[in-house]
Amino acid sequence: MHAGRNKIIAKAAVCVLLATAATRPAAANSIPTKSDVVWIGVAVGAIGAGIGLGIYFAVHHNASLTGCAAPGANGLELQNNGDQQTYALVGAVSVIKPGERVRVSGKRVKKSPGPSPQFLVEHLSKDFGPCLAKPATP
User: Which structural domain range is residue 12 located in?
Assistant: First the structure.
């Protein structure tokens, strides 16, 4: 996913460099030719595309959850550390082992059946190893 983003950014940078290198120095009394206008348009378009892509990739990202995976009534569940919520995991859960602390990427399911909200797992981002045992409360 990151390789495709880097290729797009590199192509935009090459377009901007070509646009700036291909222009000739301006004389005080010269009128821009059609090719000058075209290259200016290409440069403006490349800069706009680069800014647009940069903003898109800076803002757009998948949701991720980190917590302890545990078997639940309807399959695998993740007890999230951040919001102290338990999520029913659906999707690509075959690589997740119960009892492991993991970070998963995906999407929260808006209308999920059952008492706990569902999280659609797209992939396992990181496996932190076994879950830490919670201390017993007196």
Answer: 2-59
Q: What is the 3-state secondary structure (H, E, C) of the chain?
A: CHHHHHHHHHHHHHHHHHHHHCCCCCCCCCCCCHHHHHHHHHHHHHHHHHHHHHHHHHHCCCEEEEEEEEEECCEEEEEECCCCCEEEEEECCCCCCCCEEEEEEEEECCCCCCCCCEEEEEEEEEEEEECCCCCCCC
pLDDT, tens digit (0-9, with 9 covering 90-100), for 86-99: 888 888 888 888 88
For residues 93 and 120, the answer to whether their CB atoms sit within 8 Å is no
Residue 81's pLDDT is 72
Assess whether 125 and 81 both reside in one domain: yes
Count of domains forming the chain: 2
Which one, of 68, 63, 64, 65, lies nearest residue 129 by Cα?
68
Domain boundary among 33, 59, 85: 59
pTM listed for this prediction:
0.51
